[in-house]
Amino acid sequence: RNPPPTLLHPEKWCRGFNHFISQCLIKDFEKRPSVTHLLEHPFIKQVHGKDMSLQKQLAELIQEQQQLGSIAKTRHERVHTRRPYHVDRADKYSLDDDLVNLEVLNEDTIIHQLQKRYADLQIYTYVGDILIALNPFQNLSIYSPQFSKLYHGVKRSSNPPHIFASADAAYQSMVTFSKDQCIIISGESGAGKTESAHLIVQHLTFLGKANNRTLREKILQVNPLVEAFGNACTAINDNSSRFGKYLEMMFTPTGAVMGAKISEYLLEKSRVIKQAVGEKNFHIFYYIYAGLYHQKKLSEYRLPDKKPPRYIDNETGRVMHDIVTKDSYGRQFEAIQHCFRIIGFTDEEVYSVYRILTGILNTGNIEFAAISSQHQTDKSAVPNPEALDNAAALLSIGSEELQEALTSHCVVTRGETIIRTNTVDKAADVRDAMSKALYGRLFSWIVNRINTLLQPDKNINAESGMNVGILDIFGFENFARNSFEQLCINIANEQIQFYFNQHIFALEQMEYQSEGIDATTVEYEDNRPLLDMFLQKPMGLLSLLDEESRFPQATDLTLVDKFEDNLRCKYFWRPKGVELSFGIQHYAGKVLYDASAFLEKNRDTLPADIVVVLRTSENKLLQQLFSSPLTKTGNLAQARARVTAASRSLPPQLSAGRIKVDTMEVMRHPEETTNMKRQTMASYFRYSLMDLLSKMVVGQPHFIRCIKPNDDREALMFSHERVLLQLRYTGILETVKIRQKGYSHRILFEEFVKR
């Protein structure tokens, strides 16, 4: 406070010291001085060479102050902001933010801790560097700009656990180490993954404060737009992702956001034509219907105002009533129009999208009747042409040509073209295949268009930038009836669980061995054998499915027989007395699958006749949808494919014969629509998994485990059994153990010396 005169000039000394400290404390990466810069600071220069004498004088000064009894008490406990509760000192469980700090470690203590925190609306808890997020099933006011500021470049222990802290950790790692990052959000359906992904994007756009405000606004509109087209109401979740989404946010080397890219996988197209009881079609169909109703434009798009189209009708008979009376549908339609506008879609493009969507709804209403002539009994025709004419008009194609493509098909044998007629059932299948293809390709086109509109400016060198990828994929599902879609979703979740295990357990323990650290091995549930059962060639489940799909005479029953004969392991079983059914012991529990329509869904055939007709459309967008080839993941190829960092090979520890990554090749010729060998849903699925993994392994992973506290979507209700089951199958107890025994800081030696 009053340094002796020998110790530099007091006021000048204090001013210099304060300025130096303030420079050291700058958090902003772009403004923070480097170490070499700080060494040139006047304060450091003026004390240079006087270390010993200054130390001695300061020691005397401190002693003097102590004798005066004015020593300030140093406080060691952490200061928490905005704690909604007081810790009860009598409680033997310490209410800590990190499960790693629990003294007694077992399922009971973990559950007790989570339940207590949840009751206090503390939905976030750490396990070392992993975040557990319990779905609060209510809106919490902890995501405002004030909270964004709290979680900006600070030590994690400065604030209570929060999803913003995870986003900040990924961002800081990216800027500090110039390395891509990847945030993996996992959990079962309805656990809150999609909402978590929104919050991560919200915070990353705040952290990467680009001067370009319009770019930030565009990025924030991406999720709501693709979710309107890719999400739907299921039996367990009103806003369930029916596709896998990997969003890459691109940053400059200094950490300013400069663009975004979205990859979509495995859209559940079958939902367009049929939904299970109590479920709905994709959100967009209801939004657009309500929007057009309120704009009095239903007749322009040939939509009825009394009886809903077949594709969105359901057993309740309330669909039209909801469309007309629910405010939320109308509001969502306006929000979607706003998204299109902000991201940069033209009015003409949006008009084309609406025409294709309403064209799909009209296509679903086309009905067929059998005509028996003296030669043939399996001929079909369209007795009532109204729906046919409506669909053809909206898709800008000829009504007669469409009818012909639906009710007959061309077969080329020995150079001759023969026209064969379709039965009523076959014609209905062709109609539905056309609707699915229209929707799937439209969805792909919207994603590609977003990527074009959000790519970094030409004048920015995008190669030197870095990415934070955010994975939001459909969660593990187990319904009363599980079909082909659930199987794909659950295999994808097995793969994410395997990736988690590799990072948290396998690679960690390999690291201990390589550095000669004496560490006790943590046992964990390795689901590798189960993944092999699904994915290996030629005897894995997906390979067997593809093989059976190539036999025209094969049935779903011969498929299940084939599974039973070849998949001889503890993970597969066949229940007695139910022919078309088989069971799988997944990492998250037993699931019974109904194999009916497996082969049909896997073949996913779209007759060439339909493609030819749709290519004649006067709607430029529709023409484009069926002239562009499909990629190996079943998506519409982008006009020009750029090879990204993701298509580079995997790091050595993950590529040791386990996952072979194929870079995305674009098929040259659009014959994929007719070649059955080339294209099955299983092969698209396999390539999608590879592509997704190749993107993920490039970055340093950050895991967010979403937990569903109850099945009734009730706020503040904590089901002990449900949470315990999720903690068990995600290996949280083992994770706590390995994080507790582990090492929190892993800095490379050269990096450490440099810093």
Automatic annotation (TrEMBL):
SUPFAM superfamilies: P-loop containing nucleoside triphosphate hydrolases (SSF52540), Protein kinase-like (PK-like) (SSF56112)
Binding residue positions for ATP: 187-194
Myosin motor domain: residues covered: 94-755
Residue stretches in coiled coil: none
Keyword Cytoplasm among record annotations: yes
Cellular localization per UniProt: Cell projection; Cytoplasm, Cytoskeleton
Pfam families documented for this protein: Myosin_head
GO molecular function, one term: protein serine/threonine kinase activity
GO cellular component terms, semicolon-separated: filopodium tip; myosin complex; photoreceptor inner segment; stereocilium tip
Any GO BP: regulation of actin filament length
Chain residue ranges for the region called Actin-binding: 689-711
Domain of life where this protein originates: Eukaryota
Lyase recorded as keyword: no
Primary location recorded for the protein, binned into one broad class: other
Keyword annotations: Actin-binding, ATP-binding, Cell projection, Cytoplasm, Cytoskeleton, Motor protein, Myosin, Nucleotide-binding, Repeat
InterPro entries: Kinase-like_dom_sf, Kinesin_motor_dom_sf, Myosin-III_kinase_activity, Myosin_head_motor_dom-like, MYSc_Myo3, P-loop_NTPase
Family: Belongs to the TRAFAC class myosin-kinesin ATPase superfamily. Myosin family.
Protein name: MYO3B protein
Organism of provenance: Cettia cetti
Gene expressing this chain: Myo3b
